[in-house]
Amino acid sequence: MTMKFQPCVFVFALASYVMGCSSGLAWSAPPAPPASANPSPPNVVLIFADDLGYGDLGCYGATKLQTPNIDQLAAEGRRFTDAHSASAVCTPSRYGLLTGEYPVRKNIWGPAPITSPLLVDAEKLTIADVFKNSGYSTAAFGKWHLGFGTKTNDWKQPLRPGPLDLGFDYFFGVPLVNSAPPYVFVENDRVFARDSNDPLVYLGRKPTDKATAITPLTDEHGQRVPNYFSGAAAAHKLYNDFTLGTTLAERSTQWIREQSDKPFFLYLSTTNIHHPFTPARRFQGTSQCGLYGDFVHELDWIVGEVMETLKEKGVADNTLVLFTSDNGGMFNRGGQEAFRLGHRGNGDLLGFKFGAWEGGHRVPFIARWPGHIQPGTTSTQLISSVDMLATFAALTEQTLSQEQIADSVNVLPAMMGEPESPLRDTLVVSPHKPTHLTVRNGRWVYIGAQGEGGFNGKPGVHAAGGPVCASFVGSVNSDIEDGRIKKDAPPAQLYDLEADVNQTRNLYNEFPEVVKEMSELLARYAPPKPKRVPRKGKPAPKKDSASRGEAIDAPTRSPNFVVIFTDDQGYGDLSCFGGKHVSTPRIDQMAAEGMKLTSFYVAAPVCTPSRAALMTGCYPKRIGMAMGSNFGVLLAGDRKGLNPDEVTIAEVLKTAGYKTGMFGKWHLGDQPEFLPTRQGFDEFFGIPFSHDIHPFHPRQDHYKFPPLALLENEQVIEMDPDADYLTKRITEHAVSFIERHKDEPFFLYVPHPIPHAPLHVSPPFMEGVSDDIVATLKAEDGNIDYKTRDEIYRQAIAEIDWSVGTILDTLKASGLDENTFVLFTSDNGPPKKSLFANAGPLRGNKGTTFEGGMREPTVVRWPGKIPSGKPNDELMTTMDLLPTFAKLAGAAIPTDRVIDGKDIWPTLIGDAQTPHKAFFYHGGNKLQAVRSGKWKLHVNKGKPAQLYDLKNDIGEKKNVIESNPEVTQKLSAHLQAFANDIADNSRPAAFVENPKPLSK
């Protein structure tokens, strides 16, 4: 259609739109354009740079590089000083830009993986749709990174739905990002220069010699993921990292030249200046800050090419040109080299890409439209990239519904004039971690956690950021000392950006009333609680049902969650699971009032990977945590740890307003970057790993372990604590946590170090121990008698039982009993050489993938919600706790990564069978077995070896593989499919350089 555009009418319509859709805010109308102004609708060019920081342009203060074309854009238009991306991360930022909706609404937090489906609902209105609905030609060039298809993208063509289904007439660009495969161009919905005889084939996320060759780069250029695709040799050859920017410039300017009588909208999403830094030869060495600055120079040239083409076509004066970035600058190796040479990518702002501090999302924003936007001006209006949808609707005189507008605000008045009042008071920004969702209101910004919630690596590594890098670049912040969050720092952050844009002083303790208001405001933007959809054919539960009661529906009030996780306790080491060598009356009572889970599994038969799975809801191999760096588990001073980019169960619950506390054994990394307080826990008291990782270890000559540290939060408070009192002290901290947080929802994680050897018991529980044993233990004199301590197993379990009872009593005394989900289980099976610990009827022990190594004695209790007194034999796992707790709490889990856990709430209440089609057993990094239904298949070097019917042979005694070939074939298929999935969708652990043992 052809739209008539009358400038004077437009100003009136725009004013009416603002009055109707922006809470009646008044604004100063811009001067009418001159009579000679082109009456046709304006073209719009939106240039969306990648990882360009607030300080990366000359017009924003850069001195070590030059950006004359962008500076001229600012001189001929308006520069905004309080503009923000929707997220501090690329994919969610692009989602917000295109849809006008905060990415938190769709639980999008990180970069879309290679196999991601299209993250934007094809039925949702986008900025391209707005222009297309007004008769514009629309095109997108450059980086896409929002996925293709409706399910896991297998890269079969056509790549639909995609850009063409979101309002773009044409697309040419990079399907993901310039640092990740496939390293080909996509045109519309096909690989560019495709050859049907040489198709693009996804090989999975493992480097292989089958992958097609790509442009050779050096470490100087920055990190780039290897190619994971074979085939498409011609397409790969056309993709050259050093001509990427110039190719996109040529293609987009050619498209402008091809436009005729229709107005057009061009979305140019550059790959500059995302790593790897690969400027064309003509730009190399032209800046004073390395390849980083050279890449900015190429970006500036791209902008100049676009502007020259608009002038060549005679439409420069009738084109609204917008220039901004998808997030702040990253402190990767290129950014670090630029800093060494005197350049600060984010200016004086605190923080970096991925984080919640201003440096992560306050970005350059320039608007130019001669005759409509006053040249050489600056605006302090608070705006966001999510505002483009409402702004473009106003520009094209379209009225949108509130649902279509989403979170967008029309900011055209701030481009064309000086509004008397702020156009938006509130802004929500998503960093990488959900725990650090950030809300802005007027001058105040509130971050509901410590730190920035982005990368935390030290200078020298690619994934650098956080407090350590803030100190490194000279930023000052009252919560940070020597590159670490202070022990006494407030639990959250409040800054007055009007007085302190660089966030030097956290005002959390000084303005409690503002903190309360801001935290309540932030809570409004948490992902919506899931709505229960009645199952077909299922009658509504009767309200007077004594056994089920309210159990069918999730509670209306947020429940508390308590997970008690013992160490090396076997399936037969509870009285209620048949143990005669122990007495556990309180846990037995818990089982009678709740439910025994008789097919409940951990994801690994040893400590570290088992705990990593509980925290993340993922198989350990998927997150690189199937082993320590050079041992089966993490050791003292290990350079490896749970990646801070993983989202833990604690972090998920914090997004729903939960307080989180952990008291006990961590064992997911002892370096500062890996500690519980960096992984979502507000409070921590305990030890960093097993208490036998200590100089008294029997093989100390080999391991040379340092003394054991006891921590409170991140501070070492004791060295070599008396382990006899660990169970008692951990319980006391758990009780205190409950009592202090009884008026707010909480998650309490109690991973006891006991009954891992050597066994320790406090004096009150030594009753019944022979005098000889007591005397032997008193004579230890700094050494530990493992063999004698094995004799106090019954006492150690009794103290664990006391701890469970004490926690349950505290919940009851605090009035929380009926609103608290409590689960008791163990991290893996019993050790092989223990005198008393045993796996009951199960075969195997700790370290094996027989049932005794991974099926755990588990009891769950929630009065009135979970049916009582009847065992549940459905297959469930510790990985399921994250999605289940998230559902019950109304929290959202990340959608940018694979989560292996399932929502087991319907299974727990007896409303459904297990949600797991199959469960997989790893020994270290080796996939060794699979269970599906009653059948379990073990493999040896990848080949089927043993098959057991667990329903009739729980002890895995009778191998029936010969008589069940079809079952074997089916389970083998499960194993292969899972191995492929892990290869395609895995994430790395994190590593630090120069790790040091903890010391006081």
Count the DSSP helices.
Answer: 25
Biggest sheet architecture: 10 strands, mixed
Mean pLDDT: 91
Strand percent estimate: 15-25%
Bulk shape: globular
Structure description:
The protein is of the alpha/beta class and 1000 residues long. Helices cover 24% and strands 16% of the residues. It has 25 helices and 37 strands. A ten-stranded mixed beta sheet has the order 7-6-5-4-10-1-11-12-2-13. A nine-stranded mixed beta sheet has the order 22-31-30-21-29-25-26-27-28. Strand 34 (926-932) and strand 35 form a beta hairpin. Helix 18 runs parallel beside helix 21 (793-813). The longest helix is centred in the N-terminal third of the chain and has 23 residues, at 290-312. It starts with 6 loop residues before the first helix and ends in a 9-residue tail after the last strand. Residues 1-38 and 528-556 have low confidence and may be disordered.
In short:
This protein has 1000 residues and is α/β, with parallel strands linked by helices.
Give a quick set of tags describing it.
alpha/beta; 25 helices; disordered N terminus
Blueprint (SSEs and pairs):
Layout: H1 7-21, E1 43-49, H2 68-75, E2 78-80, E3 83-84, H3 90-99, H4 127-132, E4 137-143, E5 170-174, E6 186-187, E7 190-191, E8 201-202, E9 229-230, H5 233-238, H6 244-258, E10 264-269, H7 290-312, E11 319-325, H8 333-340, E12 365-368, E13 377-379, E14 383-384, H9 388-395, H10 402-405, H11 412-416, E15 426-429, E16 438-441, E17 444-447, H12 466-472, E18 480-481, E19 484-485, E20 493-496, H13 512-523, E21 560-566, H14 585-593, E22 595-597, E23 600-601, H15 607-616, E24 640-641, H16 649-654, E25 659-665, E26 683-687, H17 700-703, E27 709-712, E28 715-719, H18 726-740, E29 746-751, H19 771-778, H20 786-789, H21 793-813, E30 820-826, H22 851-854, E31 858-861, E32 876-877, H23 881-889, H24 905-908, E33 919-923, E34 926-932, E35 935-940, E36 943-949, H25 965-984, E37 990-991
Helix pairs in contact: 6-7, 7-8, 18-21
